[in-house]
């Protein structure tokens, strides 16, 4: 479908790193029912020049200004800027698509605010697997959800949890478990690495019951996530190995998931829960 009035939906993108730029280029190349209306990033002039080289002409605005120009606001920013883009979009009643999903755990009041303003918050599957199955199982009773994330050490360098606890992932000779706790704690300690854990928690039994392990593994080249779910309807275990993007903290599939999510908002056929 397209918008209820028959017009295309406009998209504004906050952040033009590896993910945001890939989404912007794909929309500009053509997705029926969608058009790119605005972008916002730290260096707006440079971003506009990069897009112009690809033949994409688009306005650069402030984070708050995206909500004034777009029906859908896609967030692809460092977690510290989450509320700057989320709050105006939700107050304006827009469709808000966050990629820094951990930001929702720290700003849960925005979910209630969306209910009041008529906004929708739609979380893409991102770099994970099986959220449809988890959502379905959550309609019954889920006893436990556990996620194990394994990443090349370079992808974890600078994570707040490692810095705070003085954990080094340099020159590892084998796998090192650097974190074990709840998804809420993990999202706070690894804001650029485990947004998938926040998405899993929101799909299932919540951030305080969802368990998370994070491993630095020098033997792997792909960001790997395994989820294990025990429910009254099913028991399942699934693993995904993601090819890193130009940003080692993020898999290439993250941008593709965002594109698929946006396409699903306007497509005549949508497959999945």
Task: Please tag this protein with its features.
Rossmann fold; 273 residues; 5-stranded mixed beta sheet; Dihydrodipicolinate Reductase, domain 2; alpha/beta; globular; 11 strands; 34% helix
Structure characterization notes:
It is a single chain. With 273 residues, this protein is α/β, with parallel strands linked by helices. It folds into 2 domains: 9-127 and 253-264, Rossmann fold; 131-249, Dihydrodipicolinate Reductase, domain 2 (2-Layer Sandwich), CATH 3.30.360.10. The protein has helices at residues 18-30, 44-53, 66-69, 82-91, 102-106, 109-117, 131-138, 160-165, 183-189, 195-203, 252-264; strands at 9-14, 34-40, 59-60, 72-75, 95-98, 120-121, 142-151, 176-182, 210-216, 223-231, 235-242. The chain has a 6-stranded parallel sheet, sandwiched between helices. A hairpin with a 3-residue loop joins β10 and β11 (235-242). The longest helix is centred in the N-terminal third of the chain and has 13 residues, at 18-30. The model has no long low-confidence stretch (mean pLDDT 93).
């Amino acid at each position: 479908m397209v918008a209820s009035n028959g017009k295309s939906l406009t998209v504004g993108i906050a952040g033009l790193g590896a993910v945001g730029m890939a989404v912007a280029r794909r929309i500009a190349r053509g997705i029926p029912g969608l058009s790119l209306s605005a972008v916002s990033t730290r260096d707006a002039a440079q971003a506009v020049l990069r897009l112009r080289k690809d033949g994409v002409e688009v306005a650069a605005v402030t984070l708050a200004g995206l909500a004034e120009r777009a029906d859908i606001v896609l967030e692809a920013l460092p977690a510290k800027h989450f509320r700057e883009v989320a709050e105006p979009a939700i107050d304006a009643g827009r469709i808000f698509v966050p990629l820094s999903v951990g930001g929702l755990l720290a700003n849960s009041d925005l979910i209630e605010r969306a209910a009041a303003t008529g906004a929708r918050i739609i979380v893409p599957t991102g770099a994970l697997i099986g959220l449809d199955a988890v959502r379905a199982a959550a309609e019954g009773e889920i006893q436990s959800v556990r996620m194990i994330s394994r990443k090349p050490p370079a992808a974890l360098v600078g994570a707040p949890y490692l810095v705070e606890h003085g954990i080094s992932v340099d020159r590892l000779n084998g796998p090192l478990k650097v974190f074990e706790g709840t998804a809420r704690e993990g999202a706070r300690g690894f804001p650029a690495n485990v947004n998938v854990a926040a998405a899993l928690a929101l799909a299932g039994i919540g951030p305080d019951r969802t368990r998370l392990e994070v491993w630095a593994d020098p033997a792997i080249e792909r960001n790997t996530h395994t989820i294990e779910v025990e429910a009254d309807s099913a028991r399942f275990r699934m693993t995904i190995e993601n090819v890193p993007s130009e940003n080692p903290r993020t898999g290439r599939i993250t941008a593709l998931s965002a594109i698929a999510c946006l396409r699903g908002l306007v497509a005549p056929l949508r497959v999945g829960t």
